[in-house]
Design brief:
The protein is of the alpha/beta class. 35% of the residues lie in helices and 17% in strands. It contains 13 helices and 15 strands.
């Protein structure tokens, strides 16, 4: 059994304004968090899907290897040739591509099948894979039981696990990080989830498809952290991958319990403004959170309403940023440009808010909306998509669809203006942080 991590065309150079912004962003981040760095020409994080699939395969009795091609050129023939040399006819190869390497994955898969290999393709792009693209396509959440059924039926075929609206479940499958030990010292942080999915249904979000919140079993959480200590002992910064920190009280309690006697770790979390209250802030403080990311797509409440995102008045938003800052945490705003409903007036409101909150917000993660297949907006926008070259589906690139109220060029220029304004805000003379570098 072979798990395949393909390279990403998006590791190529972004627009120079984006490149320059993140150069200074990274320097400021590193000045506050000792040991933080941006890998050159490599993945910024562990490919977590590998650990999750490896854990499931181990659970059902399979041995596996990792073919990690994340740092090689994204060329289909070269990738296929490498994999053919590492395998033999009948071998099973598993892939989970993202948008940017989806076309590459399909090309490699077809080449492998032509040489007698069996390919299993899953992940967030699998809904766009056809029957000739892989020996087996899996859509939706995967479990050890589903994986066993796929492999024992000897392929080919299609499996699909639909999301169930609402409710909270529990995940008890243990990820196995053994195959990822080659990343020791090569990534600036580790990612850990105490829950998966989200109960919000924002139409622009790729996690809205899950429609459920799955809390990770406390024993699984402890098992993962023990692996971190054993395999990545140098790591001190952990990104809590829960889409909305505080949405599950059980998930927060589990995190506090597992790290109660591990004070050397520091944390980055992301959350929704509606979840920020005194109880959540106190939990963040107890855990050791140093950075809080909050989604701030637009200051236009009408656009948020059209996007099915619950929202508050910008004044309340600003006060909650201030509350986090007063508690000693740095706030990073996740600013999402390029929403299909955005107008010039919406953009101006957002620019005004960024300026008004410049003394509270520390940094800005800047994204341009991409209509990934699992976002609720995808079927709505499908006929408006003009660029189906998935290597161009980048969150730092121009829109691949026609917005409703302006041209593609206007939307892209607005994103670049956000980059320019954010760069000017983090580069202001005299701007410094009161938080000492975390060692």
């Amino acid at each position: 059994m072979h798990i395949v991590q393909l390279p990403f065309p998006s590791l190529s150079e972004p627009h120079e304004a984006v490149r320059d912004y993140y150069r200074d962003y990274s320097a400021r981040f590193a000045s506050e968090l000792a040991g933080y760095f941006i890998p050159e020409g490599a993945l910024w994080e562990l490919p977590l899907w590998v650990a999750h699939i490896a854990g499931m395969l181990k659970e059902i009795g399979y041995e596996m290897s990792l073919a990690d091609m994340s740092t090689v050129p994204a060329e289909a023939e070269a990738c296929a040739r490498f994999l053919l040399e590492q395998t033999r006819p009948g071998s099973v190869l598993m892939m989970s591509p993202l948008a940017q390497n989806f076309d590459l994955a399909l090309s490699v898969s077809r080449m492998l099948m032509a040489e007698g290999r069996q390919t299993v393709l899953g992940g967030n792009m699998a809904t766009l894979a056809g029957p000739k693209d892989a020996s087996h396509v899996h859509r939706g959440q995967v479990s050890a039981r589903v994986l066993a059924e796929i492999l024992q039926k000897k392929l080919p075929g299609l499996t699909e696990v639909p999301g169930l609206k609402g409710g909270i479940g529990r995940l008890d499958s243990k990820p196995d990080y053994t195959l990822l030990t080659g990343y020791k010292g090569r990534v600036p942080l580790l990612r850990l989830n105490a829950s998966h999915g989200c109960l919000y249904a924002c139409s622009f979000c790729g996690d809205a498809w899950s429609r459920q919140l799955h809390v990770v079993d406390p024993a699984v959480l402890e098992h993962e952290v023990q692996q971190f200590e054993r395999l990545f002992p140098e790591a001190r910064l952990i990104y809590i991958g829960d889409k909305t920190f505080g949405q599950s009280q059980d998930a927060v309690k589990n995190l506090l319990a597992v790290f109660a006697n591990r004070p050397h770790y520091k944390f980055i979390v992301q959350t929704h403004v509606l979840n920020v209250n005194e109880t959540v802030i106190e939990a963040m403080r107890r855990l050791g959170v140093v950075v809080v990311e909050m989604g701030f797509e637009t200051a236009d409440s009408e656009v948020l309403k059209e996007s099915s995102k619950p929202n508050l008045d910008v004044d309340i938003y600003a006060r909650r940023i201030q509350a986090l800052t007063a508690a000693g945490m740095k706030v990073v705003l996740n600013v999402l440009g390029g929403l299909p409903q955005e107008r010039a007036a919406s953009h101006e409101l957002t620019m005004r808010f960024l300026q008004d909150s410049r003394n509270e917000a520390w940094l800005y993660n800047l994204y341009n909306f991409v209509p990934y297949p699992l976002t609720p907006l995808f079927p709505v926008l499908r006929e408006r998509i003009h660029d189906w070259n998935f290597a161009h589906w980048r969150e730092d690139g121009p829109p691949v669809f026609q917005p409703y109220h302006q041209t593609v060029e206007q939307s892209w220029n607005q994103f670049l203006e956000k980059v320019h304004v954010a760069h000017s805000l983090i580069s202001r003379p005299g701007v410094s942080s009161s938080m000492e570098a975390v060692s």
